[in-house]
Amino acid sequence: MRAPLSLDPRRTALLLIDFQEEQRRDPIYSVAGFADLLGNATRLLQTARDRGLRVFHAAFRRDFASCPPRPFEPLANDGRPAFSDAANPLTAICDEVRPVEPEPVIYKNDASAFSEGTLHGFLTAHAIEWLVVAGVWTEACVAASIRDAIAAGIHVLLVKDACGSGTETMHQTAVLNIANRLYGGAVTDTLGALKLMAGDEVDVWMVDRPAPILFNYSDAAEHYRNL
């Protein structure tokens, strides 16, 4: 359902997930439409900074020295991480959304931005109630972070066009699956999120019951547009 929402900037933070050069330049792990969604993330970041919202960055850097390989984890031929190797310069956060002081950066060895245990503490320390989320890949690190945020009692505003995956279809169906169980949260686009961060009231999509969106291959894109 759609309903009006407004956010208290003192209780709202922005979380940017895995906007790394690997997603732009690695042919295997590149994200569809990355330039556009990175542009949207940049607008969110600038508005958050201008309005004095807390900003948090998360980046996937697989470091076997701190977290050894897990069972069944894919490995490169030389035994190093198959993706997001901490030694790979492509794990650097993109310059367009480069962190500045005092914005914390959570370098994580797992999908969720909460996996390292520090983000929850940051949010609690600053009494954050709403987390504006943008990032990649939608069905993986974004979805895992959102699930953990909800479990921690934090409301999530998912900015659908500031997230992405390997294909647009993967992204859209992932957003629909997240939306179906985004309890206490909301879905909007970049324009809506910018208005909310500026203190305006905006009509957003909110879940009103478990799994309200039943979609098929034929109508998933339409359901996505209606969020």
Question: Can you tell me about this structure?
Answer:
This protein has 227 residues and is of the alpha/beta class. The protein has one domain: 3-Layer(aba) Sandwich (Rossmann fold). 32% of the residues lie in helices and 20% in strands. The protein has helices spanning 21-25, 34-51, 119-125, 138-151, 168-180, 190-197, 220-226, and strands at 2-5, 12-17, 54-60, 105-108, 130-136, 155-164, 186-188, 202-205. The strands form two sheets. The protein has a six-stranded parallel beta sheet, with helices on both faces. Helix 4 (138-151) links the parallel strand 5 and strand 6. Helix 2 runs parallel beside helix 6 (190-197), helix 4 (138-151) packs parallel to helix 5 (168-180) and helix 5 packs across helix 7. The protein is globular. The relative contact order is 0.20. The mean pLDDT is 97.
Salient structural properties:
Rossmann fold, alpha/beta, two-stranded antiparallel sheet, 7 helices, 6-stranded parallel β-sheet, 227 residues, 8 strands
Rg calculated over all Cα atoms: 17 Å
Mean pLDDT: 97
Q: Give the helix proportion (percent range).
A: 25-40%
Overall number of structural domains = 1
Question: What sort of overall outline do the alpha carbons produce when their principal axes are compared?
Answer: globular
Coarse structural class: alpha/beta
**Can you write the helix and strand succession as a string?**
EEHHEEHEHEHEHEH
Q: CATH homologous superfamily - what is it?
A: Isochorismatase-like
CATH topology, by name, is Rossmann fold
CATH architecture: 3-Layer(aba) Sandwich
What's the arrangement of strands in the largest beta sheet?
A: 4-3-2-5-6-7
Counted beta strands: 8
Question: What share of residues are in beta strands?
Answer: 15-25%
